[in-house]
Amino acid sequence: MNREKLALAAGCAAFAAAVATAQAPPPGGGPLAPPYKNLQVFPKDITQPQLVGNMKGFAQALGVRCIHCHVGTEGQPLSTFDFASDAKPTKLIARKMLAMVHRINEKEFGVTEFKDVKVTCFTCHRGSTKPLTAPPPDVNLVPPPPATTPKAS
Ligand code: HEC
Ligand code: HEC
Question: Which ligand has the minimum distance to the alpha carbon of residue 118?
Fold first, then answer.
C-alpha cells in the first residue's frame, strides 16, 4: 500500500485532521513520539499528531480506552505502556478493520483522497465494540405513510 492509500485507511478522518492542525508535537519525545517500532498499516513516517489523532479516533469510535488494544495499566503513566506490542487480539482485529475500511472507501466508493473518506470506524461502531446488526427492538424507524395524519403528541 502506498502512502496516500494508507492515509485513507486511517478510518477516523475528521478526528485525525482536527488533531493534526490543533496539536504540535511536544518537544523531547515522550511515550507517544516517533520512531514507532511496529507500524504495519500506517506509513512509517506518520507524524505524532496523525498517529495520536487516529488512536483517539479509534478509542472514540469504539467507546474504549487505549488499553482495550494496548498493553498497559489504566491510571499508570503512558511511559509504562507497551504500545508496540501485538499481545492483545483487539489490536490485531483493529489492523484488519483498518484494511477493510480502506478497501470499502477505495473500491466501493471510489475515494482517492483522504478528505473524501466515506466510511470510518465510527460509521459502524458508533461508540460500541459491537456494531448493531438490526435496529433496537423498541425503536420504530419507519416513518408513517404519507396519507396518515401524525397523532398530535
Ligand atoms: C481499537 C484498537 C486501538 C485503540 C483503542 C488504540 N490503539 Fe494504538 N494502535 C492500534 C493499532 C492497530 C496500531 C498499529 C497500527 C499499524 O500497524 O500501523 C496502534 C499503534 C499505536 C502506537 C505506535 C506503537 C509503535 O511503536 O508501533 C501508539 C504510540 C499508539 N497506538 C498509541 C495509542 C494511544 C495513546 C491510544 C489511546 C488514545 C491508542 N493507541 C488506542 C490500535 C489501537
Ligand atoms: C463495516 C462496519 C465496520 C467498520 C467500518 C469497522 N468495524 Fe470494527 N467491527 C465490526 C463488526 C461487525 C465487528 C464484530 C463485532 C462482534 O463480534 O459482535 C467489529 C469488531 C471490531 C473489534 C473487535 C471487538 C472488540 O471487542 O473490540 C475491533 C477492535 C474493531 N472492530 C475495530 C475497528 C476499527 C479500529 C475500525 C476503523 C479502522 C473499525 N473497527 C471499523 C464492523 C466494523
Answer: 2
Q: Which residues line ligand 1 (CB under 6 A)?
A: 32, 36-42, 55-56, 58-59, 62, 64, 66, 68-70, 83-84, 90-91, 94-95
Q: Say which amino acid occupies 48.
A: Q
Per-residue model confidence as pLDDT tens for the chain (153 residues)? 444 444 445 555 443 444 444 445 555 688 899 999 999 999 999 999 999 999 999 999 999 999 999 999 999 999 999 999 999 999 999 999 999 999 999 999 999 888 899 999 999 999 999 999 999 889 888 898 887 666 766
Spans of all domains in the chain: 3-125
Greatest CA separation found in the chain?
67
Q: pTM for the whole thing?
A: 0.88
Cβ neighbour number for residue 88 with a 10 Å cutoff = 16
Which ligand has the nearest atom to the CA of 93? 2
